[in-house]
Amino acid sequence: MAFQCQRDCYMQEFVTSVVACSPAELKQEINGKKEIIKGFNVKLQDTILFPEGGGQPDDHGLIGDVPVLRVTRNGAEAVHFVGSVLEVGREVQLKVDWERRFDHMQQHSGQHLITALADSMFGYKTTSWELGRQRSTIELDTPSLKPAQVEALEAAVNEKIRANIPVTVQLLSLDDPALEKVRSRGLPDDPAGPIRIIDIEGVDANMCCGTHVSNLSHLQVIKLLGTEKGKKNKTNLIFLVGFRVLKYVERSYSIERSLVSLLKTGPDDHVDAVDKIQKTVKALQKCNLNLLRDMAVLVAQNFKLNPERDLNVYWTFFDQKVVELGPRVLEMLEGKGAGKNGRFQGKVNSMARRGEVEALLLEHCRSEP
Predict the structure, then answer these.
(1) How many alpha carbons fall within 13 Å on the CB side of residue 331?
(2) 9, 112, 165, 208 — which has fewest CB within 10 A?
(3) Which residue numbers delimit the Alanyl-transfer RNA synthetases family profile domain (predicted)?
């Protein structure tokens, strides 16, 4: 069964009726914490809200004035999770979150185009893909992708976008011989109804349940950001499509202007400026460490000359014998630590036996020549 969102991906509002409504729970991550939300699973006569599938996240939207928090597929039915009970048989109006939906359409159709041309140009098959919140990834069956190949692929996909190529949907039966010519990674375990084919005219025909643009020109632009090493000798190709490219440029420009203000240099000099700052900081840290070591030696020498003065809570000694006393000190003060290269440091949990520790250290200092 095809849902209305699959028959017309551009429909933003739709009137339907409630078929079923039952109590349910939804596990969600809110502010980094997993929480269980109580609500209701609602089934409708039809829907324009896409249930997650084919690598594409679900739609958000409204049933009347009730927010839809999740949409999943159960066989041939879409299940909408909402926070309020809805009366069975009631006629309702659906409204899709269009910004989210169109973004998913752009990324998904863009993935089909990139996948098709990566295969036809270089013979690299797509083994999986992920539509992320900010950027998306295609896993290619190749250990590496050269920068020149990325550049050529980006030029090719954007040329197809400018060519104004139509994208259509075909519905084929399971026994249709035409299925043999369709690109696919296999049917789902529970196929329902005819098989849906996304056809980019003259470029690609691919089995898919997701929502797509009706013309490649609606993708606007594709930017291939680069590659990362994938699993099992594969390569992840990172990409942005459409409005995500515009948002990326806007964010990048904002960061660039902030760096100009902070570094007092033009954008072309930012890398050199940061490199210079890092080297300066490293040199200052080294100098600071040397000063601290010199101070520690002076403190230790001063203590040896004045052994009767009060000890502070923190001791620092550059002396091998004192380092050897470290484990005894930590045992007495219920702490943990370690010694290395004539130094010992640790963290203690109890100062109840401080007097005994002071006596131990005083005895050691007095015994030193």
Answers:
(1) 6
(2) 165
(3) 1-251
Strand-by-strand arrangement of the 167-172 sheet: 167-172, 195-200, 204-207
Which tens digit of pLDDT belongs to each residue from 108-132? 999 999 999 999 999 999 999 999 9
The answer, as to whether pTM is greater than 0.85, is no
3-state secondary structure of 151: helix
**Spatial separation of the C-alpha atoms in residues 81 and 28, rounded to whole Å:** 12
Q: Is 279 helix (H, G, I), strand (E, B) or coil?
A: helix
Q: Do 348 and 330 touch, CB atoms closer than 8 A?
A: yes
CA nearest 68: which of 104, 131, 26, 33? Answer: 26
Q: With CA atoms as reference, report the closest residue to 78 among 104, 39, 38, 46.
A: 46
- In the prediction, which pLDDT does 185 show? 57
Nearest to 17 by CA among 95, 87, 80: 87
**Mean pLDDT for the stretch of residues 220-249:** 96
Domain boundaries, the chain: 4-96, 102-251, 311-367
Alpha helices in the chain (DSSP H): 4-7, 98-122, 147-162, 243-263, 270-305, 320-333, 354-367
Task: Using alpha carbons, list the distances in angstroms from residue 194 to 77, 169, 277.
Answer: 14, 12, 62
| CA separation for the pair 138, 127 (Å, rounded) | 8
Average pLDDT, the chain: 88
The yes or no reply on domain 4-96 and CATH 2.40.30.130 is: yes
Q: For residue range 304-338, list pLDDT tens digits in order.
A: 676 555 444 445 555 555 567 788 888 888 888 88
Out of 3.30.428.10, 3.40.228.10, 3.60.15.10, 3.30.980.10, which CATH number does the structure's domain 102-251 have?
Answer: 3.30.980.10
Least confident window among 70-79, 225-234, 327-336: 327-336
Q: Does residue 132 contact residue 110 with C-beta atoms inside 8 Å?
A: no
